[in-house]
Design goal:
The protein contains six helices and eight strands, in the order E-E-E-H-H-H-H-E-E-E-H-E-E-H. The chain is α+β, with helices and mostly antiparallel strands. The chain has a domain of about 150 residues. The strands form two sheets. A five-stranded mixed beta sheet has the order 4-5-6-7-8, sandwiched between helices. The longest helix is centred in the first third of the chain and has 28 residues. It is globular and about 50 Å long.
Length: about 230
């Protein structure tokens, strides 16, 4: 069930300050996004791994892979957003990229969203006053528990230990939702589908959710120590 009036999600615009993108929040603050903070506080090991991959495949090919993945993710998200709002799986066009993204979205709908009891909003603007802001894919109820949910496309099958930053991101949005809307969300869900249409699902909740919340606020502290 789509229930967009349960919480008052106020739209936020994006602004640029000294060359850096910020969210303009309803209380007048200009805050860095969750993804900005995560990118700025990546470990040297993560940065080096990305650089090594670019060198291995070549700069041009790496850019092509990244661009194709981004386009695939955008199309998949649009199919999912339409379904969440209407309950209807829209048909793809004849473009093969659209057909692929449609198949991926259907996997997420049939194996992931089927477990959702209620949707409160999609592409939801969230912020933690005076600290950070961002937009999360989906807020609602998953298997009878309030949750922050994210749709991810992937070029290949992912191991759980590879995606800590995805979990940290979910914790960031949940804490923002709790702070502004008075909720007590301690669950995050990732619905993921690979380019060859293999579905994966990852859940954090309870004490594991608390662990990633702690990791997030340490990253926030690192960010502000670095840039203030």
């Amino acid at each position: 069930m789509y229930n967009p009036n349960k919480y008052n999600y106020v739209p936020m615009s994006r602004v640029e300050i000294e060359g850096k993108r910020r969210y303009a929040t309803p209380d007048g603050e200009k805050l860095p996004s969750v993804t900005t903070i995560l990118d700025a506080t990546k470990s040297e090991e993560s940065k080096q791994a990305l650089q090594n991959w670019r060198k291995r495949v070549g700069v041009q090919k790496a850019q092509a892979i990244t661009t194709e993945a981004a386009g695939r993710g955008t199309r998949m998200h649009k199919f999912l957003e339409d379904y969440i709002k209407t309950g209807i799986v829209t048909e793809p066009g004849s473009n093969p990229y659209s057909i692929q993204s449609h198949k991926m979205a259907k996997q997420i709908i049939e194996q992931g969203l089927v477990k959702c009891n209620e949707y409160w909003g999609t592409e939801v603007p969230l912020y933690f006053p005076k600290i950070y802001a961002g937009t999360t894919d989906l807020c609602g109820v998953h298997d009878s528990s309030d949750a922050i949910m994210d749709h991810k496309q992937s070029n290949k099958f992912k191991k759980r230990e590879w995606i800590d930053d995805y979990f940290v991101q979910l914790a960031a949005y949940a804490n923002a939702h709790n702070e502004v809307h008075g909720t007590k969300i301690r669950k995050g869900v990732i619905f993921m589908c690979t380019a060859d249409v293999v579905y994966q699902e990852f859940i954090i909740e309870g004490t594991e959710f608390d662990k990633y919340s702690d990791m997030w606020f340490k990253r926030v502290e690192q960010y502000y120590m670095k840039f203030l």
